[in-house]
Amino acid sequence: MARFITLRFSMAILQILLVATLVFGLLHLLPGDPVLVVLGSERTPDPQVVAAVRARLGLDKPLHVQYIVWLRNLSKLDLGKSLVDDKPVWNEISARLPRSLELIIAAILLSILFGITLGIVAALNRNNMFDWMSTTLSSFGVSVPVYVIGTLLVLIFGVELKLLPIAGYIAPAEDINEHLRRLILPAVALSLSPTAIIARMTRSSMLDVLIQNYIVTARGKGVKPSKIILIHALRPALIPIVTVIGLQFGSLLGGSVLVEYIFNWPGLSTLLVTAIGRRDYPTVQAVIMTIATFFVFINLAVDLTYGFLDPRIRQS
Asked: What predicted TM-score, i.e. pTM, was given to this entire model?
């Protein structure tokens, strides 16, 4: 098991290094000069001023030297300073990252709860009304864009029924009840698509497991149906489900921008969009690296979960 964990962890570090290289290279290929962002001018300023700012930002050095400096600072968790306000980028990320993670974790928990439940119900009631209803709901969740779902939730529960606030963020320290009320709608909007995908995968995986010989034998021995489903069938069926959950978690971390925008939730995705619009390259690099690092370690957690669920995997 130790060899399995060490190998997977080493691969995760190599993936992060590759992402850092790609982020550095692609951002330096984008059009536009970051010096003009600092100077606040799109016109051609004094060349001496441009040279001075370029030297202060380290942009006068060769590209490979800038890359080495970027990696060295990254290893020290020094993400640089914003070109817009000259403040450390980590300050803004550390303030917004917990908000995005809270929203995404709430959405994923809802997706796991309802997705696995719907998938199991559909598999146990194959080709009848419950299966048809589950499949219909899954198709709806996958096909309808998240901004449409978010807008419908705002109109129904915020404007018409006036049950929940439609937008805004309140810190838990100020009012925990109001904070949770404002979390409900964006979490539900963000969870619908992952719920549908998890439900489909759970149904497919459970159907494959339920026809195995050991399940038929357990039924023949009179084992309780609940024990067969939860212990003998669900555990081997969880391997592809865990994969989907991990991928959905990672995709939501970088793809929650529309939900954050609709519900005015100040998270990491909105910071990335704002930084791209301002050509604030250090902030863009830092946000992308943060999202990518989380994605890599989510995949690492998925791999380790594989080894726990199926000992054959960690021996391969």
From this structure: 0.80
Residue 38 has pLDDT above 80, yes or no: no
- 3-state SS class at 81: strand
Please name the amino acid found at residue 20: A
In tens, the pLDDT along 186-199 reads 999 999 999 999 99
Look at residue 19 in the predicted model and tell me its pLDDT: 85
Q: How many other C-beta atoms are found inside a 10 Å radius of the C-beta of residue 230? A: 12
Token reading at 36: 């003009």
Residue with tokens 């791999």: 303
With CA atoms as reference, report the closest residue to 122 among 134, 107, 110: 134
Q: Which residues are paired to 81 by β-bridges?
A: 88
First to last CA, the chain: 11
Here the tokens at position 185 are 């709608």
Whether 142 has a pLDDT exceeding 70, the answer reads yes
> Given this model, what pLDDT does residue 235 score?
80
Determine if residue 18 is left, alpha or beta; phi over 0 gives left, psi from -120 to 50 gives alpha, anything else beta.
Answer: alpha
Phi, psi of 174 (to 5 degrees): -80, -50
- Give per-residue pLDDT as tens, 234-250: 888 888 888 888 888 87
Local confidence band at 313 (pLDDT 50, 70, 90 cut-offs): low
Which residues are CB-contacts of 271 (< 8 A; sequence separation ≥ 6)? 92, 93, 96, 283, 287
Using CA atoms, how far apart are residues 233 and 223, in angstroms rounded to an integer? 12
Report the 10 Å Cβ neighbour count for 128. Answer: 10
70: amino acid identity, one letter: W
Q: Which two tokens stand for residue 181?
A: 């009320």
From 262, 294, 115, 303, select the one nearest 194 (Cα to Cα): 115
CB-count exposure of residue 151 (10 Å: 0-12, 13-18, 19+): middle
